C-alpha cells in the first residue's frame, strides 16, 4: 500500500494446522498466476521432515494412493479409490527404537496428504492423534516443512527457502536419539 494501491495477498502454498515451515503468498495477480501455474506444473518443490511411529521396511519409496474425505470422521481424510490422486516420496534419514526421521517430498498437495499416506503404510506421525499417532511431548504432529523451492514470479530465478527445525521438534528428536537401545 506504499504507492497507494490496495493489494490483496493471495495464498499459493499453505500448511496443515500444527505443521511448521514456510508458506508462499503472492502480492499481486500476476505473481499469483505465475506461481499457480508453477504449482500445477509441479515446478514448486516442497520438502518435509517427519517423525513417524515404527521404522518403514523400505528405506525409501513412493506412496501413490488417492485421498478423499473420511465419511466417518468429519474434517479428516483417508486413502480412497474414489479420491483425488496423491503422491508422496519418502526417505528414512535416521532410525530409532520404534520411530524414524523421514524426509518427504510432495508431488501433489492434498489436504492432510503426508498424514494420511504415512498412516496408510502403518507409520503415523508421532503426536498425530486423529490419524493414530502416539502422544508426544510436543502436543502436535511431528511434521515440519523443511524446504520450499520455487521460481521468482518475475525474474524466474530459483528461490530456495530452508526453515530450521522448531525447538520442540529438535528436542523430541534429541530425546529419541538419547533413548536408543
The biggest beta sheet is recorded as:
6 strands, antiparallel
Side by side, the strands of the main sheet go 4-7-8-3-9-10
**First-residue to last-residue Cα separation:** 57 Å
Helical percent range?
10-25%
Supply the CATH architecture: 2-Layer Sandwich
Uncertain parts = none
CATH superfamily: Pseudouridine synthase
Structural class: alpha+beta
Q: Give the tally of β-strands.
A: 10
CATH topology: Pseudouridine synthase
Compressed to H and E, one letter per element, the order equals EEHEEEEEEHEEH
What is the tally of helical segments? 3
Describe the protein.
By secondary structure, this protein is an alpha+beta fold. It has one domain (10-178): Pseudouridine synthase (2-Layer Sandwich), CATH 3.30.2350. It has helices spanning 29-40, 113-120, 167-178; strands at residues 10-13, 24-26, 45-53, 60-64, 67-69, 77-79, 87-95, 99-106, 143-151, 158-162. It has a 6-stranded antiparallel β-sheet, with helices on both faces. It has a two-stranded antiparallel sheet with strand order 1-2. A two-stranded antiparallel ribbon has the order 5-6. 28% of the residues are buried.
Amino acid at each position: 500500500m506504499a504507492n497507494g494501491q490496495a493489494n490483496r495477498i493471495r495464498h499459493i502454498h499453505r500448511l496443515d494446522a500444527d505443521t511448521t515451515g514456510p508458506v508462499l503468498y503472492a502480492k499481486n495477480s500476476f505473481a499469483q498466476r505465475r506461481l499457480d501455474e508453477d504449482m500445477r506444473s509441479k515446478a514448486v518443490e516442497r520438502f518435509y521432515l517427519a517423525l513417524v511411529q515404527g521404522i518403514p521396511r523400505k528405506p525409501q519409496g513412493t506412496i501413490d494412493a488417492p485421498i478423499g474425505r473420511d465419511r466417518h470422521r468429519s474434517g479428516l481424510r483417508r486413502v480412497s479409490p474414489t479420491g483425488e490422486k496423491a503422491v508422496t516420496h519418502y526417505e528414512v534419514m535416521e532410525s530409532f527404537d520404534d520411530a524414524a526421521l523421514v524426509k518427504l517430498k510432495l508431488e501433489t498437495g492434498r489436504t492432510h496428504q503426508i498424514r494420511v499416506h504415512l498412516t496408510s503404510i502403518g507409520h503415523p506421525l508421532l503426536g498425530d492423534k486423529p490419524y493414530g499417532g502416539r502422544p508426544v511431548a510436543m502436543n502436535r504432529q511431528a511434521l515440519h516443512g523443511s524446504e520450499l523451492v520455487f521460481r521468482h514470479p518475475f525474474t524466474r530465478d530459483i528461490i530456495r527457502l530452508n526453515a530450521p527445525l522448531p525447538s520442540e521438534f529438535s528436542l523430541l528428536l534429541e530425546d529419541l536419539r538419547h533413548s536408543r537401545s
